[in-house]
């Protein structure tokens, strides 16, 4: 994560199998103050070979590649560089790819139709440690994952360790509420909600709140399918 309060340059690595796209991204991002494109790759294999040595802060990764997919590259690069922020770039509004990207730890997921200025903002956003996932797409994904309106299945080992308060917060995260909105519903301060979420993520073994919400939705769906089988 880059400290946005200082003059540190955001180091960016690019992965796309189309040279024209890479050149466009390099010219766009490299022309911005405080951003440096430190390397690029045309395949997943090249990205895994070159990326770690360059120590980028942000990796802009194409989702679909001739030798695999950018989501696998995201997961493997982050296993080597946990602080790396991966921004997935795709031509397709694909819920399955979004789900996989979330669970791989991607910090952002944007379509290639995005405006150049918005892409620059996205790079700066994920470099600062924030997530950038399109709210409408994420909400649609969560709705499609929910098999019913019930609470996450308590018997699942991944969720069994959560307190009642943490489970309530998790359910509200799944509805797309912010920390402040959750605090308003549960009569808690925003700081208290944030502390609960930090402990909850640690228990679940995930980094981001949206990962926790997806996990809970998957567990609920699996439990309902098992009950109905």
From TrEMBL:
Give the matching PROSITE patterns.
Answer: HTH_LUXR_1, HTH_LUXR_2, RESPONSE_REGULATORY
A Pfam family matched in the record:
GerE
Query: Which InterPro entries does this chain map to?
Result: CheY-like_superfamily (IPR011006), NreC/VraR/RcsB-like_REC (IPR058245), Sig_transdc_resp-reg_receiver (IPR001789), Tscrpt_reg_LuxR_C (IPR000792), WalR-like (IPR039420)
**What sequence ranges are listed for the domain Response regulatory?**
11-127
Q: Which domain of life is it from?
A: Bacteria
Spell out the CDD domains in the cross-references: LuxR_C_like, REC_NarL-like
* Domain HTH luxR-type intervals: 155-220
Which SUPFAM superfamilies is this protein grouped with? Answer: CheY-like
Q: Which key words tag this protein in UniProt? A: DNA-binding, Phosphoprotein, Transcription, Transcription regulation
Cite the GO molecular-function annotations of the record. Answer: DNA binding
Residues modified to 4-aspartylphosphate: 62
- What PANTHER family does the entry give? TRANSCRIPTIONAL REGULATORY PROTEIN NARL-RELATED, TWO-COMPONENT RESPONSE REGULATOR
Protein name from the UniProt record: DNA-binding response regulator
Identify the species of origin: Streptomyces lasiicapitis
